[in-house]
Amino acid sequence: MKTDMSRKKEVVLGSHGNSRGSLLVGESGREIPFLIKRFFVIKDVPSGATRGAHAHKTTSQALFCLCGSFTLITDDGVSVIEESIDSHSTGRLLLPKVWHTMKDFSKGTIALVVANKHYRESDYVRDYEGFLRLVKKGT
Ligand code: T46
Question: Model confidence over 31-42: pLDDT tens digits?
């Protein structure tokens, strides 16, 4: 597992490329540091749109850019990292209690997200003040 748990929390997929093309792979317990229970795809994002802008209470996710590029901003309540995501083979781990926002989507961007939990709206914190209270409380 090549997950950098310190700063940028990179998730590096296995890569098998040859004259027939390229195959990328992620397995739970190997490249993906949790058991995958759900995936979703984000696509057709209009120019200027922002997605995310929330944190999760308990859900962990890994975010991949299959096509195109976007800017990912992550905020753990102490520091903010803004980075361009454009690698097909290196995603980002989005741990619980990290406020994350995606913006500046290039035309045709397709993002894949895998998660360790099923969808539950009650797992979302969508107001920033509530997020800061959650981080402070530590629970
Ligand atoms: C995240 C970022 C990176 C479902 O019904 N099931 C699902 O599994 C998901 C993810 C969403 N939905 C519904 C809930 C909303 O009615 O789809 C609609 C759009 O969801 P949302 O506005 O939360 O989409 P994004 O792109 O802002 O955020 C998504 C994920 O929700 C979130 O977990 O971390 O992508």
Answer: 999 999 999 999
Quote the CA–CA distance of 94 and 116 in Å, as a whole number: 11
107: left (phi over 0), alpha (psi -120 to 50) or beta: beta
Rounding to the nearest 10 degrees, give the CA dihedral for residues 94, 42, 32, 78: -10
Taking the centre of ligand 1 as the mean of its atom positions, its distance from the CA of residue 81, in whole angstroms, is 21
Question: Which pLDDT tens digit goes with each residue over 83-130?
Answer: 999 999 999 999 999 999 999 999 999 999 999 999 999 999 999 999
Sign of the CA dihedral running 122, 91, 85, 93: positive
Locate the ligand 1 atom nearest the alpha carbon of residue 115 and give its number: 33
Interatomic CA distance for residues 4 and 71, integer angstroms:
19
Whether pTM exceeds 0.90: yes
Report the chain's C-alpha Rg in angstroms.
15
